[in-house]
Structures are given as structure tokens and as C-alpha cells.
Design brief:
InterPro entries: GDSL (IPR001087), PLB1 (IPR038885), SGNH_hydro_sf (IPR036514). One of its GO terms (molecular function) is phospholipase activity. This is GDSL-like Lipase/Acylhydrolase. Keywords: Hydrolase. This protein is α/β, with parallel strands linked by helices. The chain folds into two domains: about 40 residues; about 240 residues, SGNH hydrolase (Rossmann fold, 3-Layer(aba) Sandwich). Helix content is about 45%, strand content about 5%. Helix 4 packs parallel to helix 6 and helix 6 runs parallel beside helix 10. It is globular, with a radius of gyration of 28 Å.
Length: about 300
């Protein structure tokens, strides 16, 4: 930093043609003032400082399917909304709701789980309507597993249809809740479910017995090129869904946050999957889902 002592050591050789030491000092001071002003302009041109984090919401709703309903997280083939990663109140899961409540107690009891077991992207418009009618300030949406996990590859939801369904739902939220924040969460990697479960006889028999996600999980031990290619195509469909989620959220604007595929990329283990169906997250899986998706969100 410049000091008075440094200024007084400057002499006329630095400013040719200046004979008076006092004039030299005056000119130097002017030069420094000009430099300071220019520096300030550069800093302003670089853009404003990051804005403070927006206030935590006073209410929230969740949209989605059986994952958001906490299906099989605490019972035999039933919803367990208390353990939902989004709106649940089970302490071990530490849901979005509980994390928000820790910094904003006003949200206490002001949650709505609008998800429905078995839902697909086509159901999001209706769920968005529920969230709008509830007047919430924060919405989570995790949808797409059932669009890809069908009885066969041919019955998966086309990517264009999926995108249209997502846009329809988001547009309804934006129109009805223009200031609400929306967390769009990537579809989990169902290929990894096959990968971590294919060597488990319990998982394989359960998938077969209940016809679970046969588009991906049929013939789980097969190494034939036909099955290898099918699994790759189904996984690509999920990748494509997530690409559409990212684009739709970007188009929505600053009040929408996509998790940048954090959930899709998470390398979950079979121990985090319910042993009732070897498909849905168990309590541990819901806790991980809560942690990853919240950390990728609005930063409350």
C-alpha cells in the first residue's frame, strides 16, 4: 500500500520537466487518484458481488413418484412419507424440510407431499396444480424413473413427450407461484441399480417376481449383445430425460435450480436400496438422496 513516506521519496526524475518538489508531489497524488478511480471502474465492470442467499422458504411442496413418497422405506409395499427425502420429518433422513426448518422455524408443519406412487411425467401438471393451490414458496420435483422403468423398452416415454410434460408442469408453477423456488432433481441412474443388484439372487428373484423395471432389469445376468445394448439404450433414455430437465430449468429462470446430475451421478450401493423390492431407496438411501439433492440446491 502507498504511504506518505513513499510519496515524499519520489523526485523529479520520475516526472521529466518538473522542477518543484511540491509540484512533483501534487502530480503524483493526482496520478494515484486517477489510478484509484480507474481501478474502481474495472471492479465495477467485472460485475457486482454475489448477492446474499435468498431467505429460506416458509412453506414447501414435493412433486414426484414413489421415491418422493418414501415407498418401502419403512414398511411392506406402502408409502412412508415421514422418510421422504423432501418433506419427511424423520430425523435420520434429514430431509429438505428439516434442513430448512433448522434455519427457518416458520416452515414447521407447512409442508405438502403431492407426489404419488406410480406417477410419471404426465402427472406433473396435476401435481403442479396442487402445489399452486397450496401457495407454497418452495417446490421439489423428482420424476422420470417410471417413464423409463416400464414393462419393456418400447413402452418408455419418448423424450419429446417427457419434455412437454415437464414444461407444462413448470409453466403452471411459474404462472401460479411466480416467486417460488423450484428444485428440479435428476432422475437416478437405473443402470447402476442393475449393476449393483445383478449378482444378488434376492434382487434378481424380486425383480422377476414383481416385474420390476423390466425395460432395464429383464434378464439381469445375460451378457448377450441384445441385452447389453438394451440396457445401454434405457440408460441413455434417462440421460436424455436429465438433459431435458436441465434445459427446462434453465428456460424457467433464476427461481429454478437443477442439481447438475448430482443424484444421477451418485454411486449408490445395494445396501441403500429397500430389500422389499430392490428398487426404491430405503431409509439410508433417502438420507443420501436428501443430502445430495439439498447440497446441490439453493444453499439455505
Amino acid at each position: 500500500m502507498w504511504t506518505t513516506t513513499h510519496v515524499h521519496t519520489l523526485r523529479s526524475p520520475l516526472l521529466p520537466g518538473t522542477r518543484d518538489p511540491e509540484a512533483t508531489i501534487t502530480l503524483v497524488r493526482r496520478a494515484l487518484a486517477t489510478l484509484a478511480g480507474a481501478t474502481a471502474l474495472v471492479l465495477l465492470a467485472a460485475g457486482p458481488a454475489p448477492a446474499a442467499t435468498t431467505p429460506a422458504p416458509n412453506s414447501m411442496a414435493s412433486m414426484g413418484d414413489s421415491i418422493t413418497r418414501g415407498f418401502n422405506a419403512c414398511g411392506w409395499y406402502s408409502d412412508c412419507t415421514s422418510r421422504s427425502f423432501s418433506t419427511g420429518d424423520y430425523s435420520s433422513v434429514n430431509s429438505h424440510y428439516l434442513r430448512i426448518r433448522a434455519v427457518n422455524p416458520t416452515i414447521q408443519g407447512r409442508t405438502h407431499n403431492d407426489a404419488r406412487t406410480g406417477a410419471k411425467s404426465a402427472d406433473m401438471y396435476g401435481q403442479a396444480g396442487s402445489a399452486v393451490s397450496q401457495g407454497v414458496e418452495y417446490v421439489t420435483m423428482l420424476i422420470g424413473a417410471n417413464d423409463a422403468c416400464t414393462g419393456s423398452e418400447s413402452t418408455m416415454t419418448p423424450v419429446s413427450t417427457y419434455r412437454a410434460n415437464i414444461d407444462s408442469a413448470l409453466n403452471r408453477i411459474k404462472a401460479g407461484l411466480p416467486t417460488a423456488r423450484v428444485a428440479v432433481i435428476s432422475v437416478p441412474d437405473i443402470y447402476r441399480l442393475w449393476y449393483v443388484g445383478k449378482d444378488s439372487s434376492s434382487a434378481r428373484s424380486t425383480w422377476s417376481l414383481f416385474g420390476i423395471c423390466q425395460s432395464m432389469l429383464a434378464n439381469p445376468t445375460s451378457t448377450s449383445q441384445t441385452d447389453v445394448d438394451r440396457r445401454a439404450r434405457v440408460r441413455q433414455r434417462v440421460v436424455d430425460y436429465n438433459t431435458q430437465l436441465a434445459q427446462a430449468c434453465l428456460a424457467y429462470g433464476v427461481n429454478c435450480d437443477f442439481d447438475d446430475n448430482a443424484v444421477f451421478n451418485y454411486p449408490f450401493a445395494l445396501s441403500q436400496v429397500s430389500t422389499w423390492d430392490y428398487f426404491h431407496p430405503n431409509t439410508s438411501g433417502q438420507a443420501v438422496l436428501a443430502n445430495i439433492s439439498y447440497a446441490s440446491g439453493f444453499g439455505w
